[in-house]
Write a structure and sequence with these properties.
By secondary structure, this protein is mainly alpha-helical. About 25% of the residues have low confidence. The protein contains 10 helices and no strands.
């Protein structure tokens, strides 16, 4: 990414960019900004300002800050390239962007699972160690759970994506479905399966707690286990 790119940034932390010409449209809704950016590409920088910090935080919690820089940049460059295909009838831009990020995170699947297994085995979290902001201290402490790390590492990639979008991105079932391009019934199936596996793997450490919350998810509750899901998950 160069200084001439519409998405050139100076900081992840405050979401500022150097695309000052894009400021004239900051009040436009996301979908209209994307449409306007087809004729005026610099408008896309406003979308970057709004959502890059959130995408970066989510990716950093899964892969560490160094990888998050690259994945976030590539997420928005990809979104910029395919913006003409954005469906304005979706629930919003956030699931679209997180869906792009999820595909990029999948390229780092081995590194993510390796880090989780290391935490489960030794109690040392190589991802959390890359976090430097003091605001992350609470999350780091919650995430330092060896049985939970073991449980997350044992999940399939699809189940882990669904669970962490729910718990860390605070997505609804519909938003998860749109982000991962799967039916809502498959989202229910994946979350139910993830919950069962976490309970079994974490054992007496009770990762759900008294209020059915998973440790390490910053207080985000996982949906209650459903007695039956009619739609299967083929993947």
């Amino acid at each position: 990414m160069t200084d001439s790119d519409p998405l050139c940034r100076s900081s992840w932390g405050n979401g500022t960019t150097r695309a000052d010409t894009a400021r004239a449209g900051t009040a436009l809704p996301d979908a209209l900004l994307i449409a306007a950016s087809l004729d005026e590409p610099e408008r896309f920088a406003v979308l970057f300002d709004r959502h890059a910090p959130t995408i970066h935080q989510y990716v950093a919690r899964r892969l560490g800050r160094d990888a998050a820089d690259d994945v976030t940049a590539e997420t928005f460059l990809t979104a910029f390239r395919i913006r003409a295909r954005y469906d304005s009838g979706l629930a919003g831009v956030r699931p679209w962007l997180h869906g792009i990020a999820a595909k990029l995170i999948s390229r780092h699947r081995r590194e993510e699972v390796k880090a989780l297994k290391l935490l489960a085995r030794t109690g040392r979290d190589p991802v959390a160690e890359t976090w430097t902001d003091s605001a992350d201290d609470r999350v780091t402490a919650q995430a330092a759970s060896r049985p939970l790390a073991k449980a997350l590492a044992a999940l399939s990639e699809g189940d882990r994506h669904a669970l962490l979008l729910f718990a860390w991105a605070d997505f609804s079932y519909q938003e998860i479905a749109e982000a991962l391009d799967i039916p809502v019934g498959t989202v229910r199936s994946r979350l139910n399966r993830a919950r069962r596996k976490l309970r079994v793997t974490a054992g007496p450490y009770r990762p759900f707690g008294e209020s059915d919350e998973i440790a390490g998810t910053a207080g985000a509750a996982v949906p209650p286990l459903e007695p039956h899901v009619s739609e299967g998950d083929p993947a």
